[in-house]
Amino acid sequence: MSLRTIVAFHAHPDDEALLSAGTLARAAAAGHRVVLVLATSGEAGLVGESVLGGDDLGPRREREARASADALGVARLVLLGYGDSGHEDRPAGGWPAGSFCATPVADAAARLGAVLAEEGADVLVADDARGGYGHPDHLQVHRVATAAAASRGIPLLQATIDREFLAGGIELARGMGLEVPEGFVPPDVTHWYTPHDEVTHTVDASTVLAAKRASMAAHATQATGAPDTVRTLAVFLGLPEEIFAVAFCTEWFVSDPSGPAVPDDLVEELFRPSAPAVP
Ligand SMILES: [Zn+2]
Question: If pLDDT is split at 50, 70 and 90, which confidence band does 22 have?
C-alpha cells in the first residue's frame, strides 16, 4: 500500500466536520498524510455572546479548528487568514476588503497551490460547484480549488451531499418531530449540493463515526448559543447514536471525468466509485 498525501480545503472551521471529516479520519488512520487548509477563521459566523464570554470569534474558531483537526488525525492545519465574507450575497458596495471573496481567485489559488506543492499532495478535496448550500465563501473555495488542482495536475474531489439523501433525511427528521433548522426547507434543497446521479465517489465513514462526532463537537461556538436559530451542528450532535450513524456513515464526492484520475490505490481503499442509480 502506498502512503498518499490528501489535502482538504474548506472555507470555515466546521465545514470539514460536515463534509469530509470521515474521509480525513479514515485516511489518517490508515497512515496517509492528511492536511487541512482553511481559507478563513469563520469570524462572521453566528454565535451567542454567552458562549464567547468576551473572546473574539475568529481566534476561538481557530482553536476549535485545531481541536477538530486533532480529533481527525490531521497532520497539519493551515489557516490562510482571509476574512470571512459572510453568508449573504455580494453586498452593494462589494465584498469587504481582505475577505476571501474579495481575493482574486488566482491569488488564493497560488497560495493553496504552494501548500499542495510543499506537501506533494496526491489529491485535493474541496467544496462542490454549488458551494453546497450556496455560501459565497464555499463557491469561492470551489473556484480556488479548481484552479489550484489544475495548476498542480492533481485530481480534485468535490465534497458534497447526495441531494436525495439530504431531502429524505429532512423528511425523516420532521417525521420524528425534530426541529429542522430554518432554511432547510424545499425548494431550497432542490438547488443544494449534488443530485444522486452526479455523485462519482463515496467514502464509508462508518468505522470513524466517533472521530466525526468529535470533530463536530469541537466546534462548540457553532453548536450553541446563537439566539433564535436552530443550530445545525447542535441538531446533529443531539441525534441518538443509531440515527447519527445512518445520517453520517457516508461522504459523497464528485470528480471531474476530464481531470486527472484519483489514484487507483485510493479508489480501492477509500474513494469507492458511486453505484449507478437504479433505473
Ligand atoms: Zn462554511
Answer: very high
pLDDT in tens, 138-184: 999 999 999 999 999 999 999 999 999 998 888 888 888 877 777 77
Whole-number Å distance, alpha carbon 12 to ligand 1 midpoint, is: 5
Q: What is the mean pLDDT of residues 232-255?
A: 92
User: Which grid coordinates belong to 60?
Assistant: 476561538
Q: Choose among 52, 21, 30: nearest CA to 205.
A: 21
Superfamily of domain 5-254+264-272: LmbE-like (3.40.50.10320)
CA atoms of 272 and 253, how far apart (whole Å): 10
Q: Compute, in angstroms, the gap from residue 77 CA to the centroid of ligand 1.
A: 16
11 CA to middle of ligand 1, Å?
5
**CA 238 / ligand 1 centre spacing (Å):** 20
| Residue extents of the structural domains in the chain | 5-254+264-272
The per-residue pLDDT of the chain, averaged, comes to 92
The predicted pLDDT at position 87 comes to 84
Distance between CA atoms of residues 264 and 261, nearest Å: 8
What is the 44 CA–ligand 1 centroid distance (Å)? 10
Strand 250-255 relative to strand 201-204: parallel, antiparallel, unpaired?
antiparallel
In contact, 214 and 66? CB cutoff 8 Å? no
Q: Say what the pLDDT of residue 230 is.
A: 64
Distance 228 CA to ligand 1 centre (A): 20
- Give distance in angstroms: CA of 243 to centre of ligand 1: 24
